[in-house]
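REQUEST ID: PR-0412
SUBMITTED BY: lab tech R.K.
PRIORITY: routine
TASK: structure prediction, single protein chain
INPUT:
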Amino acid sequence: MTIVSGEITAAYSALVALIFVVLSMRTLLLRRKLGIGVGVGDNSRLIKAARAHSNFAEYAPICLILIYLLETVAGGQLLVHMYGAILILGRTIHAYGIGQVEENYKFRVVGMACTFIVIIGCSVRLLRATLLS
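STATUS: complete
OUTPUT:
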């Protein structure tokens, strides 16, 4: 099977989108249960669920863009898979950690570390491929 440029990132994007839907549904169902249509009130469970969802939405897109650029500009399927897997793992761990009312900060720290590995790693590789080639 021949891999078309962008195809690997497309698969990771689909996984990221599914995680995003899970986080969205979790927040929506909690809003419905609590009767809070807008905002979060002072409910700690809803605050945590909304932040897990929002944080995911803040970081996942830039990571996917960088992974896609890595795949199309700098090549290297192994690196693309590595960063895609780290992104999925990191964002899932972070969402789990931040979503807990009784939070264990280790999950957030590990999740953010994974996310920063993707951002920094892809950025450095892209700079090497574009500016130093």
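NOTES: The radius of gyration is 17 Å.
REVIEWED BY: pending
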